[in-house]
Amino acid sequence: MSLTRIVILGAGTMGTNMALDFARSGFEPQVVEVDEEQRARSREYARFGARFLHLNGLAKDDPEKVVGRIAFLEHPVRVMRAFSEAQWIVEAVPEKLELKHKVLTEAEAVAPEDAIVTSNTSSFLPSRIAGKLRRPERMLVTHFWNPPHLLPLVEVVPHPGTAPEVVDALLKVLVETGKHPILLRKEISGFIGNRLAFALQREAMDLIAKGVASAEDIDAVAALGFGRRIPISGIFGTCDLGGLDVYAAICDELFPGLCNDAAAPEKLKELVAQGKLGVKTGAGWRVYSQAEIEKLRHALSEELVRHANRDHADHSRSKAAQHTMILRGPSSATLPKVEKRGQ
Q: Which residues form the catalytic set?
């Protein structure tokens, strides 16, 4: 099943960077965005992103060539033609269920019978989105992580009615573009990444509410302690290294006292009500100067680029190894041993 004709619904941060990621891999994605100003911002952001990738060795093609592969659609005729020829429709509009239903049903009404429809939602179950579609068996979630042109993870979340061949086709094309898809065995709200992240954030915010430590000190504990081990050994590898008997005892001691609140903490609501929304307003859990904001963004960008270069090199080596295998055939070491009989 070929998935080269990709249409992205929405030209926000995620839609733009997903298009950039596909274009960097040689695809020619088409982006549908009804807001004229947003289309213009998206086009400029894609151009900036392409230069950024090229300067950091993450895109071999000229930036203008990469951006030239992205079509930003505005005329209704062009949009309808894109829908009618689409093989993969990716929804990347804001997290409003009614809006997702609207844009997906409009696209699906024109799309070919065998087109695959996915949502980049970070919270809604795929079954809630698929319920409004005519062909729910061809719908699932592909949750790209932000920024998608630097982070390889994509959580692939089918619902119980998703056709297996749809899942297989998506996994194949994601791997081809250098992504690292993780297939969930069943749908669950928040998938894997956000459930882990928000469990940690809930406990961190509860520690502040209890007056245990400041936001700066809690961040330092995460960065200088377990945060250095997780990228290497993971969660369960860390447990195995520490000893499961040790972890079982700690679980019995700690779990009863961990936060299990079912709503956002009051302190977080207070900050939002005060207009302290984070770096975009200059204050959140901390107060930021413009210089501190730029320093934080630069440090994060630098670290993500470092990892992305390593991922890119690993993907290139994997593709080269596969190409060598095709040209030479499997070595004797990879062939199954056949037991000789009748001797």
A: 155
- Identify the residue whose tokens are 């809006």: 99
Pairing of strands 71-73, 30-32: parallel
Q: Nearest CA to 129 among 154, 159, 109, 167? A: 159
Residue spans of the domains in the chain: they are: 6-183
SS (H, E, C) 205-231: HHHHHCCCCCHHHHHHHHHHCHHHHHH
For the stretch 122-147, pLDDT in tens is 999 999 999 999 999 999 999 999 99
Task: Kindly report the pTM of this predicted structure.
Answer: 0.89
Fold of 6-183: Rossmann fold (3.40.50)
- How far is residue 13 from each of residues 58, 70, 93, measured CA to CA in Å? 19, 15, 10
User: Could you give the C-alpha distances from 168 to 115, 137, 139, 172, 225, in angstroms and in order?
Assistant: 14, 13, 13, 6, 38
Q: How confident is the model at residue 341 (pLDDT cuts 50, 70, 90)?
A: very low
DSSP single-letter state for residue 283: B
* Coil, helix or strand at residue 127: helix
